Request: fold
Amino acid sequence: MNYHITQTCSACPEQYDVYIDSEKVGYLRLRHGIFTVEYKDKLIYTGYPEGDGIFEYDERSTYLEIAKEQIVLIHLFGDKQETTNSIKEELMNNIKNFLIEKVLCVVQNRIK
Reply:
């Protein structure tokens, strides 16, 4: 996996495009003191550095590393929240189907 970022604007806002292999997968932006990380157009991280439209010299590498970790994790393992919601939905469907079967069983026994 080849991860790289390309700075698209140096200040106001400081922003970057993120690529894994040759696919653009992310967008990083620092504007008005809010650093956002997007993966495939979905906000996945928000940070609040000292810099306003440009990072302070000593914080850029830290925030860019955080962005890399967040993007690579989601790229490799998927969105934990989406996975959790999918599991919950499957569980609820299984419970619903189980209850329907039990109710039908009781109804059928009463009809006999």
Q: What stands out?
A: The CA atoms of residues 7 and 16 lie 4 Å apart. The chain has a mean pLDDT of 88. The longest strand covers residues 23-31.
